[in-house]
Amino acid sequence: MSFNTLGLSAALLRAVSDQGYSEPTPIQRQAIPVILNGRDIMAGAQTGTGKTAGFTLPLLQLLSTSVNKNGGRPIRALILVPTRELAAQVQENVRTYGKHLPLRSTVIYGGMNFKPQVDRLRKGVDILVATPGRLLDHAGQGTVNLSKVEILILDEADRMLDMGFIRDIRRIISQLPAHRQTLMFSATFSDEIKRLAGDILKSPETIQIARHNTAAENVSHVIHPVDHSRKRELLTYLIESGNWQQVLVFTSKKHGANRLAQQLNKSGITATAIHGDKSQSQRTKALADFKRNKVQVLVGTNVAARGLDIDQLPHVVNYELPDVPEDYIHRIGRTGRAGNEGEAVSLVAASEMGLLKDIERLLQRNLPRIIVPGYEPDTRIQMLPQQNKGNKSRGGYKSGPRRGSNTCSHKRNGSAGHPRAYQ
Q1: Which has more pLDDT, 320 or 208?
Q2: Cβ atoms 423, 109 nearer than 8 A
Q3: Closest CA to 182 of 39, 28, 75
Q4: Quick one: DSSP state of residue 371?
Q5: Cβ–Cβ < 8 Å for 234, 249
Q6: DSSP string of 404-422, one letter each residue
Q7: Segment holding 253, helix H or strand E
Q8: Which of 242, 241, 294, 240 is nearest to 271 (CA)?
Q9: Partner residues linked to 151 by β-bridges
Q10: What is the pLDDT of residue 2?
Q11: Above 90 in pLDDT, residue 352?
Q12: Residues with Cβ < 8 Å from 169, sequence gap 6 or more?
């Protein structure tokens, strides 16, 4: 099947072709015709499946072919997303695919000056991409009017609920017309998600691309048992010996991300950090530098687990395992996207074995353990169910240095932060 068979206009097909795409992904094949028919949908799809284009393309088609009966230029489509990074990337998709259409769009999120956003809204936009908190700020100031919205899209709905936005979402929905088309996209379907869907969707078409809580099949997993105090050494060794040029590394806390980035830079590996305490301009620059290969390593907290669209990212490293098993799936979803292969590496200390078992229970499989020679943990980490000690892994690591100098202490902490910090 090609995009030509989905009922898209010549202007949209041209924009798709400009991006080098010829065949739609499974989520695009299933979602686009349903959306074009005006149906509500409840779509389950993991990251990297092309879901953003799956709703952006039919949204642009519907707005460009339907007559605006409201006069002026009111907001006709609202796309709600959980984080600033995802908001910026969705807006970029809207702009890219809509470049041959006479539609206006803008994005609003926290961390940026309020007045320029107000100025853009007053000029009139057809499509608004927003995070819940900043949108409610504008609604409270009377600078945004949602009474003419025809299409509502909730992207990564499960993440918005995980971040505590359920009340914000319901407040926003209360300001929308009852008669509208609603599209919900979510990687997982918790009971709370299902309740929300039942309240806001009307006879939705259910589309399920990936099984519930499953990791991408083209991502290989490896667990390297190591002492907490030697994680930074091992990470440095893996990057240098494997000649890794683009690595996304996850820590559990913001100050840990800052410290690790500083330590890597001192070791001669270019690195930068991204998390909720960074200003929006800092976060935008960090991501841009990483995408352009100006830095090898982007160190982030779970704020980076969703929404970062990085082409052909080969390596994701869990410097510390997440407390919530589902976050492991969202983290490694940054690699192995759009048919590309990727590798998910986790550095696991003895105290994290319980978290690892929870992850394996969720994945319904055991992940291979490989001790890198020279980094054997002092505390014998339970190697069952797979005893796999040696000098060879999927990446073909050579024997590393023996225990000695340049160790660093790294205490594991839980994640924290108010939801607004991520908007």
Answers
A1: 320
A2: yes
A3: 39
A4: B
A5: no
A6: -S-------------GGGG
A7: none
A8: 294
A9: 77, 181
A10: 85
A11: yes
A12: 80, 132, 154, 160, 161, 196
Which of 304, 229, 249, 253 shows the shortest CA–CA distance to 413? 253
* Dihedral Cα 23, 24, 25, 26, nearest 10 deg: -120
Predicted confidence (pLDDT) per residue in 271-315, tens digit: 999 887 777 778 778 888 888 889 999 998 876 555 566 666 888
Contacting residues for 109 by C-beta, under 8 A, at least 6 apart: 84, 87, 88, 130, 131, 134, 280, 423
Question: How far, CA to CA in Å, does 412 sit from each of 251, 306, 323, 326?
Answer: 9, 22, 11, 19
Confidence of residue 91 (pLDDT cuts 50, 70, 90): very high
Confidence at 405, pLDDT banded by 50, 70, 90: very low
Q: In sequence order, what are the residues at sequence separation of 6 or more whose Cβ sits closer than 8 angstroms to the Cβ of residue 373?
A: 390, 391, 399, 400
What token pair was written down for 368? 């291979």
Amino acid identity of residue 36, one-letter, is L
Whether the CB-CB separation of 186 and 333 falls below 8 Å is answered with no
Q: What pLDDT sits at residue 389?
A: 40
Q: What are the C-alpha distances in Å from 307 to residues 50, 90, 187, 346?
A: 12, 9, 12, 21
pLDDT digits (tens, 9 = 90+) for 146-205: 999 999 999 989 888 878 899 999 999 999 999 999 999 988 788 888 999 999 999 999
Contact, 107 vs 130, CB < 8 A? yes
The predicted pLDDT at position 247 comes to 92
Helix (H) or strand (E) holding 242: helix 231-242
- Nearest residue to 215 via CA among 85, 359, 29, 320: 359
CB–CB of 80/160 below 8 Å?
yes
75-97 average pLDDT score? 92
What is the full DSSP assignment across 3-30?
Answer: GGGTT--HHHHHHHHHTT--S--HHHHH
